[in-house]
Amino acid sequence: xxxxxxxxxxxxxxxxSQLAEVGVASPRADAEWLMCYVLRxxxxxxxxxxxxxxxxxxxxxxxxxxRRTRVPLQHLIGTAAFGPVDLAVGPGVFVPRPETEWxxxxxxxxxxxxxxPVVVDLCSGSGALGIAVATLVPTARVxxxxxxxxxxxxxxxxxTACDVASRCRAVCADVTDAGATVAALAAxxxxxxxxRGAAPVADLVVSNPPYVxxxxxxxxxxxxxxxxxxxxxDDGMSVITPMLALVGRLLRPGGRAGxxxxxxxxxRVLAAAAATGLFTEVAGHDDLTGRPRxxxxxxxx
Length: 301
Ligand SMILES: C[S@@+](CC[C@H](N)C(=O)[O-])C[C@H]1O[C@@H](n2cnc3c(N)ncnc32)[C@H](O)[C@@H]1O
Prior knowledge:
11 helices, 7-stranded mixed beta sheet
């Protein structure tokens, strides 16, 4: 007797309803990504995919069951797509979010002003912003700063896997301590990107730091991110405010910076940047839905 066929389309429809039932935000897309992972195919090939083998059907149902417990999709498939790159992610590192691509787009546009830019990515996590900039701007040299030793391991792994190691270095440092971070960056200067003798002189600083005010309600998946990657004190500013002094020290006169922030803290970030007295052109940016996403500034001359 032949085993009944397990159709890809039927399994995806079943998984979609399973995931919708527990409140997963994008149940159909998640069901499809998990199927692609099991079949080892691109999403564009799903429509013409064959039936599932027994083993594939078991694997798929196991993944759907785990996703129902709100394990992030990216932890299940081991990667997160960000701009032009796929980054390895898992426990111990923040999963890059699509909304940060707004800042990436701004950063790449800002770099058209500079021929061979030096870029610093503060609070780099998996390396999302720094590695994407290095990939999209082949003349850029990138320094990525991250405090967490666990995240730093993922960052180094992604720099190598994304083939940008010749132009990208990772530094383990605390961005709220400007002196220590400048010293750590100076220690890698001369051995690669950003070297101009001592500490790097940056044309552009980008940062998606922790910024969510403590106590804010978040989706269950956020529980898989390290707490210190997400939350930043009662007002969401415990990293951004001290980090602004470092941004001022790293940027050359006329250099630019873009910092992502919580929807609720745009006015605070604008005020904190202005209060340093180090920047001009301090401006807030919304996404297409009108949500405030990031603040940009230019180092005074
Ligand atoms: C919101 S995550 C963003 C990661 C990455 N930039 C991205 O967009 O996916 C913030 C990152 O900042 C790191 N971090 C938190 N406090 C820091 C500090 N004081 N100095 C350096 N990195 C810090 C966290 O470990 C985490 O990787």
